Structures are given as structure tokens and as C-alpha cells.
């Protein structure tokens, strides 16, 4: 009975995590309207989540886990973890800057180009050949991306879409791809919860430094003067970062990285639906078709035989949005 139930429970865990991650677009836009900047949002969101992950690390240590120190890592693993942490910070910063400039749907659909970018990167590095299935998936994804960008309703749709916002959204996809490629072979001795604590703490630190450099550090302290903002950011850090990250990692251990990656695609349509309901954002039929093509291409890449979890720790293979 246990073996029969585990795949179903694992799939449900991933879907719940994807649904929680999908709230980030609406939550970030809501806090922006209350005066928070994207940098301050990332600082609080990643900071609260990092504290949650650190608590999880302490729990695992009390249960007999081992703390992997920085000095105990090989130089190559140190570099890999540093690159992954910076890629995670870049992902958070670019994504939440993009949420401030273009519709949530556009950001999420651009972001899910990352499996195609991973496929290209893996081929260039000589890890996994592209093959016919992946080549077809790449063409489908790229065609869908073009439709997403230029397929808005009205002749002025393309002109009305902020190109910087689109580039930032694409930058989040590139950042995620870099994270995945590095995590596949790097810092394998570091337990996932410890690695994620480093990644989230780095993201919070980078966002704070960017806020200071941009002269907007005062907005970082804004939640302390606003109970509404403070409540939103605590909710975001716990329920839209910490908990879904934990659910995602737990779900992968049940069903594996490939199936988990496919189920995580649910984040995009759920995020688009939430944006339509709470932000009154709508996208045209051509963009919807393009988005479906992007997600279909991502699913094809995830399911292709070249992508096998054997070459890496499954729980470190993919980090979801945000």
C-alpha cells in the first residue's frame, strides 16, 4: 500500500508547491502598490525563507545530520556553490523586477524557457546530446516565445510591452538554467537544505546591496512600519518560498526530478489565472497558444531520454521559480 500511495502523494506535494510558488506574481505586485520596491521584496522574501531553511538545517542536525563546512569542500565545489548562489540571486532579482514592468503571465512564460536553455547548455558542454526530440522541443519553445512576445491583442501590443521587462524575464530563465547546470554536478556533498540556505541568504544579501546602491534602502525597512506589509512579507517568505521549497524537495525524493520538473510547469497556468483574477491581467489568444507551446516544449525536454536523474542528485537538479 505504501508503494502505491507514495507516487500520488509525491505528485500532490509538487503540485501544492507549484501552486504556492504561483502566488508570487500577485503577492509581489500587491506589495509594490503598498510602496515596497522589488529589491526590498526580494530581501524580505529570501531572508524569511533563509531563516526557515536554517531552522530546517538545525532540525536535521539534531536528528544526526552532518553540517558541511565551507573549508571541507573541494575548490571546485566551492566555486560551484558560489556560482549557484549568485545565479539564484540573479533569478530572484530579475524575476521580481520583471513583475514590476510586464504582466505576470509574460514573466512566467518567459521563465519557462529555462528547460530549453538547459538543453542547449548541456549539449554545448558535451553532457547530453540534443537529439531529434529535443531539437523539436527547442523549436516549439522558441516559436511559442515569439508568439508570447508579439501576440498581444491590438496592433500596438508589441510596442506597449516593456522590452526591459521582457529581457529581465528572459534573464530569470537564463539564471535558472545556470543554476540547474551548476547544481547537476557541483557541491554534491552539501545537503540540499544547507545549499538552499546559502542560496536564499545570498539572494537576500544581494538584493539589500542593490537597494543600498540604488538609494532605496529605506524601503527595506518599510514593512517594520506597516503591519500590513510586514504580514504580507512574512506570509510570502513562509508560504510562497520556505514551505513550497520544502515541499518541492520532499516531492522530488518521492517521484524523482524529471516527473517533478514536469509537474512544476503547473506554476505557469496557475500564476496566469491568479493574475487574471486578482490583478485583472489578461493575455491574447495568440499569447495563450504561445504559452502552451513553451510549456509543451519544456515538458518534452523533461521527458526526453537524455535527461536522466542518475547523473545527479535528484533533489538538487532543479530549483523552482523564485
3D structure, described in words:
By secondary structure, the protein is an all-alpha fold. The chain has one domain. 74% of the residues lie in helices and 0% in strands. The protein has 15 helices and no strands.
Task: Give the topology.
Layout: H1 2-21, H2 24-33, H3 38-62, H4 75-99, H5 104-111, H6 114-124, H7 131-150, H8 157-160, H9 163-185, H10 192-213, H11 222-225, H12 227-255, H13 257-263, H14 267-278, H15 285-303
Helix pairs in contact: 1-12, 3-4, 3-10, 3-12, 4-9, 4-10, 5-9, 5-14, 6-9, 6-15, 7-15, 12-13, 13-15
Distance between the ends: 35 Å
Structural class: mainly alpha
Largest sheet properties: none
Average per-residue pLDDT, rounded, comes to 82
Short description:
This protein is an all-alpha fold and 322 residues long.
Features:
15 helices; single chain; mainly alpha; 322 residues
Amino acid at each position: 500500500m505504501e508503494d502505491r500511495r507514495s507516487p500520488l502523494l509525491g505528485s500532490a506535494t509538487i503540485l501544492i508547491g507549484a501552486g504556492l510558488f504561483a502566488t508570487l506574481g500577485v503577492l509581489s505586485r500587491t506589495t509594490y502598490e503598498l510602496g515596497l520596491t522589488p529589491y526590498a521584496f526580494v530581501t524580505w522574501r529570501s531572508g524569511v525563507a533563509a531563516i526557515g531553511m536554517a531552522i530546517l538545517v538545525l532540525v536535521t542536525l539534531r536528528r544526526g545530520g552532518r553540517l558541511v563546512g565551507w573549508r571541507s569542500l573541494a575548490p571546485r565545489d566551492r566555486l560551484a556553490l558560489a556560482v549557484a548562489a549568485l545565479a539564484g540571486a540573479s533569478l530572484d532579482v530579475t524575476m521580481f523586477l520583471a513583475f514590476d514592468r510586464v504582466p505576470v503571465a509574460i514573466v512566467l512564460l518567459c521563465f519557462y524557457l529555462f528547460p530549453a536553455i538547459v538543453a542547449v547548455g548541456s549539449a554545448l558542454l558535451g553532457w547530453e546530446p540534443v537529439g531529434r526530440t529535443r531539437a523539436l522541443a527547442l523549436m516549439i519553445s522558441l516559436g511559442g516565445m515569439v508568439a508570447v512576445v508579439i501576440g498581444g491583442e491590438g496592433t500596438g501590443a508589441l510596442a506597449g510591452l516593456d522590452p526591459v521587462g521582457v529581457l529581465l524575464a528572459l534573464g530569470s530563465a537564463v539564471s535558472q538554467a545556470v543554476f540547474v547546470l551548476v547544481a547537476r554536478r557541483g557541491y554534491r556533498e552539501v545537503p540540499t537544505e544547507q545549499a538552499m540556505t546559502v542560496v536564499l541568504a545570498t539572494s537576500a544579501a544581494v538584493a539589500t546591496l542593490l537597494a543600498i546602491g540604488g538609494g532605496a534602502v529605506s524601503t527595506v525597512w518599510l514593512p517594520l512600519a506597516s503591519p500590513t506589509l510586514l504580514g504580507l512579507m512574512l506570509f510570502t517568505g513562509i508560504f510562497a518560498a520556505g514551505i513550497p521549497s520544502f515541499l518541492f524537495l520532499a516531492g522530488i525524493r518521492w517521484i524523482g526530478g524529471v516527473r517533478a520538473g514536469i509537474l512544476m510547469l503547473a506554476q505557469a497556468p496557475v500564476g496566469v489565472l491568479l493574475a487574471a483574477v486578482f490583478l485583472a491581467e489578461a493575455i491574447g489568444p495568440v499569447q495563450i497558444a504561445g504559452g502552451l507551446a513553451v510549456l509543451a516544449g519544456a515538458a518534452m525536454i523533461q521527458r526526453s531520454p537524455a535527461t536522466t536523474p542518475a547523473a545527479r542528485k535528484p533533489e538538487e537538479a532543479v530549483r523552482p521559480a523564485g
